[in-house]
Amino acid sequence: MATSLQSSAPAGPVPFLRQLCSGYRSSLSVSFPHNLSLKSLEITSVAKSSRISAVVKTESSGLEQTEVDISLSPRVNSVKPSKTLVISDKATALAQAGVPVIRLVAGEPDFDTPAAIAEAGINAIREGYTKYTPNAGTLELRTAICHKLQEENGISYTPDQIVVSNGAKQSILQAVYAVCSPGDEVIIPAPFWVSYPEIARLADATPVVLPTLMSENFLLDPKLLESKLTKKSRLLILCSPSNPTGSVYPKKLLEQIAKIVAKHPRLLVLSDEIYEHIIYAPATNTSFASLPGMWERTLTINGFSKAFAMTGWRLGYIAGPKHFIAACNKIQSQFTSGASSIAQKAGVAALDLGFAGGEAVSTMVKAFRERRDFLVKSLGELEGVKMSEPQGAFYLFIDCSAYYGSEAEGFGKIENSESLCGYLLDKAQVALVPGDASGDDNCIRISYSASLTTLKAAVQRIKKALLPLRPAVPV
């Protein structure tokens, strides 16, 4: 017998996506042997500790009454599910049910993995390269990563200063686990990738969010950073090019940040460079570890998913001082062990395509730029919409707050980014990500990792859906 339990939630009409993604809902499921029957159920919710406790009392003929505690840990209850994945899964389910939803949610290139990379993976299978690899990754791949980082990023590492993981997300999580103690502060500029704060919470650290301005291209103000650092500040996370804004940190600004970091002995920097090759001239990428005095303080994150269209291969890596990398390796040894042997062979082939991925990557970047230019022009024509032109990645983070307060016929009031995305999914059948998931409720994120034809259809639908609305806030 299986019993599904759900904590209570506020009654009344709730916008579609709010009901889908709200953080206050918790679902619990428990299964029992067929010979046990449910007698009574007690659920206690303690808001302050985010702990949901439940005791199921059971009885069966010939057995004494037993109790099963199905509560979850406060650590898990403090973490919100990834709204990006929740919406993406919902949009996928609608599409599979026959609803013609245009999905501009996930950060996943629509291109196939380049042929040379795919062939390397196929050959690995055919040649029986399907066994466990060393926990930190094959020496072949780690050596290739060291060469890439030296040639492309100007930073020098040895293979024992690299750990290959099942995607860059795992590399980030292990880095935060390795360096943060309970109560440490993780400094995160907003808008941010949705997982940064939650990963900090999983490590019992405290995320400290620093807002940025669209007028400043969503770049961190060094003065604000300096004013917020404390003795508890342990890790500063920088993502350039940025998810969700597409902003790229100029070298001069990074140098200013580095001077501030240098004043704080405990402060490390996690530099997320997963989008480094998806960048639009004249913008250029600067690895934080390449700045004077920053190599010893920097944990560099990178991977293969975005630039090489290898999202499903699940392959990422971290590079840094041996002391920290050894700790990440130890965590991984008790967590997932090494990454796929097949994916690692494919990773070697990816790094063998040439500087910055060669023609295969430059062709994709050219297409992304064309898509960006189309969206900036087309959505810029909408009344009340504001934006900062992305310099990298494949996201457009647009301010649609002028539409908040509008009444949508048959839907209700547009109150925030979540209800606006709910409205666009309902009326336009276009799935987008609310900006509140990234720390800026004024905006919504559009992923242009879809074909230009798809983007044109999406813009047409969005414009039609917004036409009956009138910006409620002067712009």
Features:
4-stranded antiparallel sheet, 20% strand, alpha/beta, 7-stranded mixed sheet, 475 residues, 20 strands, single chain, globular
Could you characterize the architecture of this molecule?
This protein is an alpha/beta fold. Helices cover 34% and strands 20% of the residues. Helix 6 packs across helix 10. The radius of gyration is 24 Å and the shape is globular. The termini are far apart. The N terminus is likely disordered.
Rg: 24 Å
Oligomer: single chain
**Helical stretch count?**
14
> Averaged pLDDT, please?
89
* Strands side by side in the biggest sheet: 7-13-12-11-10-8-9
Q: How far is it from the N-terminal to the C-terminal residue, by CA? A: 57 Å
Helix fraction, binned, reads 25-40%
- Largest sheet entry: 7 strands, mixed
Proportion of residues in extended strands: 15-25%
- Coarse shape: globular
Give the number of DSSP strands.
20
Q: Show unreliable segments.
A: 1-51
- The assigned structural class equals alpha/beta
